[in-house]
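FW: tagging you since you asked about this chain on Friday. Here's the raw sequence from the shared folder, copied in full. Didn't touch anything.
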Amino acid sequence: MTASTTPRPAAARSRLAAVGAIAVAGTLLLTGCGDQRDIKTGGNGAADTAAGSNAPLFAKLPKKIQDAKVIKVGSDIAYPPVEFKKDGKVVGIDPDIAAAMGKELGVKVQFENGTFDALLTGLRSKRYDIAMSAMTDTKDRQEGIDPKTKKKVAEGVDFVDYFQAGVSLYTKKGDTKDIGGWSDLCGKKIGVQRGTVSHDLAKSESEKCEKDDKDAIEMEAFDTDLEAQTRLKAGGVDAVSSDFPVAAYAVKTSGGGKDFELVGEQVEAAPYGIAVSKENTQLRDALKEALEAIIKNGAYEKVIKTWGVDAGAVKEARINGGS
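HL: got it, structure written out here
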């Protein structure tokens, strides 16, 4: 769930070339659903890993986590295909990548559900060890800056970047309301998930509408993306904005592909990051090494291909690569 404040000009969207190819792969997004995965999660959200001190990177972990043999992950588990529940199990891109990393670290990775805009608060209060929830790595989040006021409101976090994605718009199928992109939303109503880049983009575009003497964009913000989709199906909003993997998954699966259609191009391509407290550099660095290990041994590629999001794959682990 990305979080940036304003749309980047076309010249600045250098990362869209790579991520834009995801659009071509959108129809492949569901080609490898849960049944094809070797990495599974239990009904309580704990990834099955070979926990123990003989794991390659176990010694790199903080002693507290070594003793617990569990990394607690704060996540908004209602964001298919990134993380969601299926048959009582936590599944998706994030849980699968986390499980693969857990094998290298020798610990279980336990996903705990929370609302997206409260995840960093839970991380700071030590309810979670990390937050992993399609969260975009941005300078504002690194520094604890409110994206609207540009004032520091909290302690920042570090990110271990593991994926790349942009933001897309979609409408009811066959009823686009003449929406072909963000510039067509003046006077329209959009559904977004609260605290995400989609919410920020809608606010920014609405300000542009008013400056151009056009009607503002009416926004409805929801706790989960699924709520926004439900509202769109009911005709309560004209469009919904989500991270591209989520939008493509909704278009592919909702109503057997008959409910929604993508409109326009995705924008704001940026890295997803695993959020870690700035004071917990040992855990951050261990996670980076674990991600590097699964990229090298092929486990990362297997997860990415399973979910059909190859174009969003990263080739190396980075810390705080967002802008």
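FW: The longest strand covers residues 260-277.
HL: agreed, and Residues 3-51 have pLDDT under 50 and may be disordered.
FW: great, closing this out.
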